[in-house]
Predict the structure of ATP-dependent Clp protease proteolytic subunit.
Amino acid sequence: PEKDIYMYINSPGGIITSGMSIYDTMQFIKSDISTMCIGQACSMGSFLLMAGKKNKRFCLPNSSIMIHQPLGGYQGQASDIEIHAKEILKIKNKLNQLISKHTGQSIEKINLVETNYSYISDQLIGSFS
């Protein structure tokens, strides 16, 4: 059997495509990925925290975990903005489906939590683990 890999997360978040490359690697590896929040896991950092193996996701007592909708800003012609708006909604749906897959939470609950730009307490992270 493969040994667990421990991923310590202290992240304010970042670019979605960069985070997804880490996520894809986590899914590709045969070993279980145990994730631990030390400090903060915000935005894409919280997504990666939740992508750890079920029952192997942890956070230190004073950690901050924040989930929100994808952010974006675009300029240009109306048609260009429409294209980008459709893409960001597609990304939002994909991320929410993956969060649901890894946490067992409904898409509706995830939408409600992220719409409110929510900080999830260490007591609540259990419901997302």
User: Anything to note?
Assistant: The domain at 5-128 is CATH 3.90.226.10 (2-enoyl-CoA Hydratase; Chain A, domain 1). The chain is about 45% helix and 20% strand. The radius of gyration is 15 Å.
